[in-house]
Amino acid sequence: MRLMKTLLAATALVAVTAGVSEAKTLVFCSEASPAHFDPGPLTGGNDFDASSRTIYNRLVEFEHGGTAVQPGLAEKWETSADGKEITFHLRPGVKFHTTSYFTPTRDMNADDVIFSFERQMKEDNPWYAYLPGMTWDYFQGMDMPKYIKEIQKVDDLTVKFVLNEPNAPMIANLGMDFASIVSKEYADKLAAENNMAAFSTQPVGTGPFQFVDYQLDSTIRYQAFADYWGGKQPIDDLIFAITTDPSVRAQKLKAGECDIMAYPAPADVAGLQADPNLVVAEQEGLNIGYMSYNVTEPPFDKVEVRKALNHAINKKAIIDAVYQGAGQVAINLIPPTMWSYNKDVKDDEYDPELAKKLLAEAGVTDLTTDLWAMPVSRPYNPNAQRVAEMIQADWAAVGVKANIVSYEWTEYRERGKQKDRKGPFQIGWTGDNGDPDNFFATLFSCSAIGVSNYSSWCDKDFEDLIQKAKVTADQAERTKLYEEAQVRFKDQAPALTLAHSKVFMPMNKRVQNFKMDPLGIHRFDGVDVTE
């Protein structure tokens, strides 16, 4: 799914404020083009940077630089004693963006909230499939249709979520990007004009920045929203300079062509740190790099084959060569920094002889497979092509031939989730909300098959544990359940857990108040620049 046009008429907005030369501009060297600007069906961090965290808001927000939930478009909320009703009280006076293509006639209200979720919930909603081939990956993969019975309008500024059963992560889930609140009035206008696709290319939100234009695969321009409910931002113009090569991003940052860059290559970090004009912030990532086996494809449908291939891979060598001091071997699906991490789980150690033995016992000889390599750099996997080459060599040593394949990032993910995908698939995850459910259920629940469960793995024991954890309010009890889930996951090996990594954020010293976000997104609200 690609954007087809640039909104040339909207560029005039850039010059609206007094004196373009006096406007404060921040340039962000981003790593990939967005699929589009409607955050509901999207899954990529680059998509969220370009849409949900600039243009939109949610009922609740995560604290800047953390995972604590704070009021957003809802000023407050309360949960019923039985945990089945959550009532949100909306912030009055919230404005939608006025653009060259839409002028709102009212403030944000309950109708917008209900529309934002019902378009993802109800298959008979005309917006459920307004783009060809679209899917609501987060909403479906997190089993939201199972938990949300209905959303009721109490009055214009009060909305009640009625649940089928209690759901411990629900509030945190509603702070995630898929839960961004969009304009029903704008949607109705486009539907009446038979121009629904424009909803994804000409966005309208309530967020700190409003969309100006997009030059395909090159530049996205935003302007600070003067009527933002949180106050106008310190910077006037925000520009995303799309630069897919991490080394080129580093060169642009050093040359002053951008102020902040995403995801430096580990080999470039030392040079960036040594530059007197730059600051390189860093933190442990809430992330996992992994490789999913398609467990419906023989011989990967056999756990002993998956275990054999895991034992054949020298993960430490990969960490040393690719992550260069910025990663650690991943044993579990969740990182050690997350609550409920099970430190007693043992990894599938590197043992090529054991790998050969297990393959022989499974009757697997002369195995040839595809091996998928991500086309983009991420902290959890800075160079998937190099990782694939090292795995390819390790597997060759035990008699397995791997052919490396890759596609453009959006197409890569779409092809990867197909149930008939051939071969193990490199992918990764950065937590969205700080809750373990966001890893276990989003990535490996039965309902996430065809969405974000790239292994097509549906295991009753694992499923029972994570579903029970969802309806349990007590965190100590949830911890026990997730610890058991990690044991089951390791025992069945639907994926190779590869690495958890540090995240680095290089920026020019003129940038003020930028906070690294553990949830793997880049937010520019509150950021300033000195001239």
TrEMBL record:
<dbReference type="GO" id="GO:0042938">
    <property type="term" value="P:dipeptide transport"/>
</dbReference>
<dbReference type="InterPro" id="IPR030678">
    <property type="entry name" value="Peptide/Ni-bd"/>
</dbReference>
<keyword id="KW-0732">Signal</keyword>
<dbReference type="GO" id="GO:0043190">
    <property type="term" value="C:ATP-binding cassette (ABC) transporter complex"/>
</dbReference>
<dbReference type="GO" id="GO:1904680">
    <property type="term" value="F:peptide transmembrane transporter activity"/>
</dbReference>
<comment type="similarity">
    <text>Belongs to the bacterial solute-binding protein 5 family.</text>
</comment>
<dbReference type="InterPro" id="IPR000914">
    <property type="entry name" value="SBP_5_dom"/>
</dbReference>
<dbReference type="InterPro" id="IPR039424">
    <property type="entry name" value="SBP_5"/>
</dbReference>
<protein>
    <submittedName>
        <fullName>ABC transporter substrate-binding protein</fullName>
    </submittedName>
</protein>
<dbReference type="GO" id="GO:0030288">
    <property type="term" value="C:outer membrane-bounded periplasmic space"/>
</dbReference>
<dbReference type="Pfam" id="PF00496">
    <property type="entry name" value="SBP_bac_5"/>
</dbReference>
